[in-house]
Amino acid sequence: MTDRRPIVGGNWKMNTDRDTADRLARDVAVACADAVADRDIIVFPPFPYLEAVRNALGSSGVRLGAQDVYHEANGAYTGEVSVAMLLDLDVSHVIIGHSERRHVIGESDNLINAKVRAALDGGLEVVLCVGETLEQREAGETEAVTLAQVRAGLDGIDPNDLKRLILAYEPVWAIGTGRTATADDAQTVHAAIRAELSRRYDNTSADTIRIQYGGSVKPDNAGELFARPDIDGGLIGGASLNADHFASIVSAAGVAAGDRV
Length: 261
Ligand code: PEP
Description:
The chain is α/β, with parallel strands linked by helices. It is built from 11 helices and 8 strands. The chain has helices at about 20-30, 50-55, 85-90, 100-105, 110-120, 135-140, 140-155, 185-200, 205-210, 220-225, 245-260, and strands spanning about 5-10, 40-45, 65, 95, 125-130, 165-170, 210-215, 235. Helix 1 (about 20-30) links the parallel strand 1 (about 5-10) and strand 2. The termini are close together. Bound molecules: phosphoenolpyruvate.
């Protein structure tokens, strides 16, 4: 039994335009109207549409997230966005260390850790993404790589700030590929992450932190994944661009939580 509140995020990545972002946000707000009572639901639109999406979500209870943030407060950092700027737009959550930022943009563990620290210091809730590449999985390095990313990402993080931290286990080979980790494989890694948190902090923190799974989660596989004891919801890419699909994944998180009690 767990009282971890399920959490489902929709990472829209570099998709939508102003009109479709507005429409999608309104549709998600309606489709998830009841779910917000017992699940955290967040959408992560592209930066330019944060304000439009905030207005479209209104008082629905669906939260507003950003896909990244920079760790410096202000200054000559062309193209970057600060924690204060996000807070100014009523952003509550931020994704840090997404595999596309690690592997396409080339972000290091050090940079990711600096971002996590700055975001938590500023009062944001952080979704820290970790996960192995296909090559690493085939070399048997899944847990070593993933746990090293957890350790590096959380270096120097005050235990008191952990309540605003969410982890997302996202095997790189499963993101946007249509390939999903089996529920058993995902559960194994989630349990290993929780054990690492327990060693690093304490049992209570480890039991309390929510760990989402991400990687080609769809309405037809969400239920099986979320039924596993250490999987507390999902970070959803492609399927979050369709409000009905997203809502049905949100609903699967609610069913799984109900079944666990
Ligand atoms: C993601 O962007 O975090 C993700 C998991 O994408 P997808 O669901 O498309 O695999």
